[in-house]
Specification:
Low-confidence stretches: 422-428
Bound molecules: flavin-adenine dinucleotide
Number of strands: 21
CATH topology of the largest domain: FAD/NAD(P)-binding domain
CATH superfamily of the largest domain: FAD/NAD(P)-binding domain
Mean pLDDT: 95
CATH architecture of the largest domain: 3-Layer(bba) Sandwich
Number of helices: 13
CATH class of the largest domain: Alpha Beta
Length: about 425
């Protein structure tokens, strides 16, 4: 940038998913608008690049807004209006129209057909260039002045370098500087805590079994005044428990877990489809009809056989014990291990495929019809800077795409209504 102050229609702080998508969308809506993306680092779209293990889990196969919002422990209510304007189906169409075909996996996650996040990055880079959205790297914005008479923002990089705009989008993700900027405008910040992590558990029942997966379990975690439940696949790792059901629990109980310093007990039900009554009937049937059949090779529920052996060991049931021999007390232990197996979480581990921050700009201070601040007119928010986050599966990006889209539409409406006023069209 050269030394005289530049005036642009839309300045976007943060060259991530939300920032890029909002810039591109405004350029599509108002082709003459001057748009800049200011990125603090030397690279843009870095999280998109590493997302989904390098494949980019763009969004989720969930096109019903009322169901979609249930995946957001924070933001469920506010996102209803945002998703009614732009939802996963719309993102897929947008990508398809822009040369990025996608595919839906069995678990509902949606990826580019190429299985590479580079397809999304290339598309965004091509679009910003084609539409004239300017991207400035190594531009860390630490302070922005707001003139409440002329309603403009003044972004000062150095004594000689200034940018003036009437619409400013904070899309700085989970960065501290972004949150500080929001605070400087009078916004409150909900204290950030991590979300989407695995549970570290040291327990002989899962030792030596990393990699073992469970198709469907129910997990329950209780705190003093709150109970959290989740259901889905789970996975034993080198450090403890992970998998979608655990990650979901980590998201919904993010605040309580942080308060407990990640020390809490939880219970796993390995038989979510069969009730305790039915399991008791199954045991009675075996004792009556197959008393000589050994427990070792007769799993009461479809658990992986290596885990079944650990369960028998935990219940002190001998390898050679048959249904006719097993004591009533041992059966009670067995049912407990199947329906309410208790584990102790000792710490958390970052889930490498995806992790996010819970907390950020207080949702009560944002108008979700426009993504605009209720405090400062012309100030917008999108993406992870907001106190909005989701379970794993592409929902976090969907929050970025949808918020970015709605913000761009609102800026476009404003630019169109103010077309007569000479704030735009200064090239930089
Ligand atoms: C390893 C990993 C994998 C993930 N995988 C998935 C996935 O597959 N699917 C999914 O839905 N979600 C995934 N997520 C979550 C998802 O990446 C985030 O929700 C999303 O990237 C948030 O986008 P954003 O634009 O809000 O912020 P970011 O992507 O963090 O972008 C913010 C940008 O702003 C810049 N910035 C910060 N402060 C300033 C400043 N003061 N001035 C200028 N620039 C600034 C930063 O450098 C950054 O480039 C993953 C997260 C991680 C960490």
């Amino acid at each position: 940038m050269n030394t005289s102050p530049r005036i642009v229609d839309y300045a976007i702080l943060g060259g991530g998913a939300a920032g890029f998508f909002s810039g591109i969308r405004l350029a599509e809506l108002v082709p003459h608008a001057s748009i800049v993306i200011l990125e603090s680092s030397s690279n843009v779209l870095q999280k998109v690049r590493v997302s989904g293990g390098g494949r980019c889990n763009i969004t989720h196969n969930c096109f019903e807004v009322s169901k979609l919002v249930q995946n957001y422990p924070r933001g469920e209510r506010e996102l209803k209006s945002v998703f009614s304007r732009f939802q996963p189906k719309d993102m897929l169409k947008w990508l398809e129209d822009h040369g990025v075909p996608t595919k839906i996996e069995d678990d509902g996650r949606i990826f580019p057909i190429s299985d590479s996040s580079e397809s999304v990055i290339r598309c965004f880079m091509k679009e910003t260039e084609r539409l004239g959205v300017k991207v400035f790297l190594n531009h860390l914005v630490q302070a922005v002045k707001y003139n409440d008479e002329s309603l403009v923002f003044e972004i000062e990089f150095s004594k000689d370098e200034k940018l003036i705009c009437r619409h400013l989008l904070l899309a700085t993700g989970s960065s501290k500087t972004g949150r500080r900027l929001a605070e400087s405008f009078g916004h409150s910040i909900v204290t950030p805590v991590p979300s989407l992590f695995s549970f570290n558990v040291k327990d002989s029942r899962i030792a030596e079994l990393p990699g073992l997966s469970f198709r469907n379990v129910k997990i329950e975690m209780k705190f003093e005044d709150k109970k959290f439940k989740s259901e889905g696949p789970a996975l034993i790792t080198h450090w403890g428990w992970s998998g979608p059901a655990i990650l979901k629990l980590s998201a919904f109980a993010a605040r309580e877990l942080a308060a407990s310093e990640y020390r809490s007990s939880f219970k796993i039900n390995f038989s979510p489809d069969k009730s305790e009554t039915d399991l008791r009937k199954d045991v009675a049937y075996r004792r009556e009809h197959y008393p000589t059949r050994g427990l070792k090779n007769d799993r009461l529920v479809p658990l992986p056989s290596r885990y079944w052996l650990k369960v028998l060991e935990a219940c002190e049931i001998d390898d050679r014990c048959s249904w006719g021999q097993v004591s009533k007390a041992a059966i009670e232990k067995l049912l407990k291990e199947i329906l309410r197996a208790e584990f102790e979480m000792e710490a958390r581990t970052t889930y490498k495929e995806e992790f996010v921050t819970a907390g950020g700009v207080d949702r009560r201070e944002v108008n979700f019809q426009t993504m605009q601040s209720k405090i400062i007119p012309g100030l917008y928010f999108a993406g992870e800077i907001l106190d909005i986050d989701a379970v794993t599966g592409g929902f976090n990006f969907q929050n970025c795409w949808s918020g970015a889209w709605v913000a761009a539409e609102s800026v476009a409406d404003d630019l169109r209504s103010k077309r007569a006023e000479p704030v735009s069209c200064v090239n930089i």
